[in-house]
């Protein structure tokens, strides 16, 4: 059996780890926002409770939101709209925790709850998006082999989310970031991924641009413009990138990490004057 040179594997271990994990690390991408979905007929109190949860989440009160969801789950078990919210918020909370063991537990729990959401309702676009986000967040805490495997799951579930709901702006954002990061991998590293880890789906900056533009068309958010600017930067289109970073600063801060994204845009504008 032909062995992949150790030097090449080590190269990918550094390069691939940085690139694939970078898709979800820190303020680079942010956590996609989500909207309330109506509960079933006659369940207005649940709909109102979920709206309050969404309000808490929007200002970064993740622990209070999780506490409310825990109570709701006890009263309404196996409801997809509760489960996918738990997954999103656990994943977001994982971004804010300094202890790495705690962070890993939160991300693994988010993956498990997101999977339960898909099981509860396989036709829920939000449930599939929750899986994509949770799997993506976990990639920065696992081995290279597992990182590649989970990256494929991100792509599979975000594609399914978009197939189920073509107006789901956060899903286009996630897929745009997946394409931008995956497209960064060099031909040599991609060949190693193919031989050793089974490969990744095709990716390109052009696909990333198209998905970011679609996300912005549906819903204006700081992280949509920031991500599009970063893709343009990778393509050498600095003037276009600056336009997007300026737009990042103009968008009202309606998500819990908006100020981080605005700070990143200011930094990039300063670096690329």
Structure description:
Helix content is 73%, strand content 0%. The chain has 273 residues and is mostly helical. Helix 8 (169-184) runs parallel beside helix 11 (222-234), helix 10 packs antiparallel against helix 11 and helix 12 (238-250) packs antiparallel against helix 13 (258-271). The radius of gyration is 19 Å and the shape is globular.
Topology of helices and strands:
Layout: H1 6-22, H2 44-58, H3 62-75, H4 80-96, H5 100-120, H6 125-138, H7 144-164, H8 169-184, H9 187-197, H10 205-218, H11 222-234, H12 238-250, H13 258-271
Helix pairs in contact: 1-7, 1-9, 2-3, 3-4, 4-5, 4-6, 5-6, 6-7, 7-8, 8-10, 8-11, 10-11, 11-12, 12-13
Give the key terms:
globular; 273 residues; mainly alpha; disordered N terminus
**Helical stretch tally:** 13
Low-confidence parts, pLDDT < 50 over ≥5 residues?
Answer: 1-44
What is the string of helix and strand elements?
HHHHHHHHHHHHH
What distance lies between the first and last C-alpha atoms, to the nearest angstrom?
52 Å
The main pleated sheet reads as:
none
Coarse morphology: globular
Content of β-strand: under 5%
Secondary structure: helix percent: over 70%
Instruction: Tell me the Rg in angstroms.
Output: 19 Å
- On the 0 to 100 scale, the average pLDDT is 82
Assembly of the depicted chains: single chain
The computed structural class is mainly alpha
By DSSP, the count of extended strands is 0
Please give a quick description of this structure.
The chain is an all-alpha fold. The protein is 73% helix and 0% strand.
